[in-house]
Specification:
Blueprint: H1 2-23, H2 25-81, H3 84-164, H4 169-194, H5 198-222, H6 232-248
């Protein structure tokens, strides 16, 4: 029972982690890049150890070559001097050194070849991983762009459907505006018809008459003839003066 519950709990956790990974592929890719850097570091440490072994073999080969040269010279000198016993001892040691030298040379060659193969394998693996990472980056960018485009298209489709549908906000707003506009126009018309213009027109005629009278008086005092109007006042004064002159005569 507890095992089944544990498996179920693990399954839920796995589903949760998978969902998080799907929603955040950039984080997963960054984690894999970090793992690749760690693996490269560990591999380089192994390469360094292998290179150190090759260096030790190289030093051993150089040491044995120097010893081989020295023993060969000593063996040759004792042979020429007729010291066959000493020459034999040196020859025996020379033989052992040459065997060790041959073995070390083989080991060094193998170690060098192995080192080159490891370096090549590392470089190929790193290049492959980096190429895959770059490809995944491009794929993630395309995915994000496609998601954004899909969301824009979906939003546009929703906007078109909502705006073009009957009973939407814009249609209701248009109806409200038209109704208020017609109502305001009707109120303005009623208010205009309710204005009593009789008093206004009478007042205007009175003002015009007073203005004409004032202008006529001014023209009479000054002896100015108004265009389009007669000046009767000066004519009447002339006729009175004539009658007075005739009576005196």
């Amino acid at each position: 029972m507890f095992g089944r519950i544990a498996n179920l709990f693990k399954g839920f956790i796995s589903l949760f982690v998978s969902g998080v990974e799907r929603r955040n592929p950039e984080a997963l890719l960054e984690n894999e890049q970090e793992n690749l850097r760690k693996q490269i570091g560990q591999f380089n440490q192994g390469l360094a150890s292998h290179a150190g072994m090759s260096e030790r073999l190289m030093s051993q080969v150089r040491k044995l070559e120097a010893e081989q040269k020295d023993l060969r010279a000593k063996t040759t000198a004792h042979v020429r001097a007729g010291n066959n016993a000493a020459a034999g001892q040196y020859a025996l040691r020379l033989q052992t050194v040459e065997q060790q030298l041959e073995e070390n040379r083989k080991q060094l060659e193998q170690a060098e070849q192995t080192y080159k193969n490891l370096v090549k394998a590392r470089d190929v693996a790193v290049q492959t991983a980096r190429a895959k990472i770059e490809s995944l980056k491009g794929a993630i960018n395309d995915m994000r762009m496609n998601q954004a485009m899909a969301e824009l298209h979906e939003m546009s489709a929703g906007m078109i459907t909502n705006i073009g549908g009957s009973g939407d906000t814009l249609n209701r707003l248009e109806g409200m505006v038209n109704e208020e506009r017609d109502r305001a126009a009707g109120r303005a018309r009623v208010a205009k018809d309710a204005v009593d213009m009789t008093g206004v027109n009478l007042k205007e005629a009175e003002l015009n008459a007073l203005a004409d009278q004032a202008l006529a008086d001014f023209a009479a005092r000054e002896g100015i003839s108004l265009k389009g109007a007669a000046a009767p006042a000066p004519a009447e004064r002339s006729m009175g003066a004539s009658e007075k002159t005739e009576g005196q005569a």
